[in-house]
Request: fold
Amino acid sequence: MNRLLIKKQAKASLKGKWGRAIGLCLVAAILTSVIPGIFYGIGTAFSTTKQTAEGIKITSTTATGTIFFIIAIIALAVISPLFQYAQSKAFLKANRGEDFTVGNVFDGFKENPGKTFAVGILQFFVIWLCYFIPSFIGGIFLGIAGGKAESIKNASSIFTAKEDLVRLIASVGPLIIIAFAFFVAAIIIGIIATFMYQLVYYVRIDNPDMSVVQILKTSRQIMHGRKIDFFVLHFTFIGWAIVSCITCGIGFLWFVPYVQAATAAFYDDAKDQII
Reply:
């Protein structure tokens, strides 16, 4: 899998289509932010901030405000997969020599949105579990270490300072190391899972009748042995990301479509190799 060829293909697919690509990504980004943001703003209007005698500010939210905050979260969870589906489809069409318009940004709402939403939620849940389970176990070991440290502190009158330190290291040290190992594992496993299921929307587009679970399995199959290639491909865009930040975000107008197009080209190349 040649990264240079993939990026070259991505640029070729966007030739004469940059304006539409930028417009589509911009509309998707704005709507993904604005729609939940409206509900969040309404929820904030129902919040009150009080200052205690000590000068501490405490923000409280009414039941109505809480409802709007929940609606904002639900709105974000619902529309994010639909807009991601639409963007994936547009750039997949571009990579295959087909045309698209900014109006295609709403394709996710027209083409079985329920299944697309289910794919997005399952993708999120699986990746979240990969982060959460090792982190939770690490937290347990860290809690045990804290309990042991507190016990040693309470019994410190029996020992000298040196004895306390030795006992603390002997009792708590291994637990902290184990906890740290689980936290590192959570990051590694989570990143791997993120890469494994990165192509679910492309699979969903090419296989509209495929079940939600099978879509995730197919993405995992396509990414087998290609996760490092995928990481390196996206890492090569770091220069674009830096320039985009330096230009106060203006560069992202070109950066995001370029990455989307490269991901679509990566998918087509990887998919063709396993057929």
DSSP finds eleven helices and two strands in the chain. Residues 18-49+57-110 form one domain. The mean pLDDT is 89. The beta strands are 47-51, 57-61.
